[in-house]
Amino acid sequence: MTHRLRIATRKSPLALWQTEHVAARLRGLHPHLEIELVPLSTRGDEVLDRSLAAIGGKGLFLKELEIAMQDGRAHCAVHSLKDVPMELDAGFALAAVLPRDDPFDAWVSPSAADIDALPAGAVVGTSSLRRQAQLRACRPDLVLRDLRGNVNTRLKRLDDGDYQAIILACAGLERLGLRERIRARLAAPNWLPAPAQGAMAVECLDGDADTRALLAPLDDPQTHRCVAAERAMNRALHGSCHVPVAAYCTQRGALLQLEGLVGDVASGRCLRANGEGAVDDPEALGRSVAARLLAAGAGELLALAGNQNPETPAV
Question: Which residue from 58, 71, 251, 304 has the least number of CB within 10 angstroms?
Answer without folding.
Answer: 71
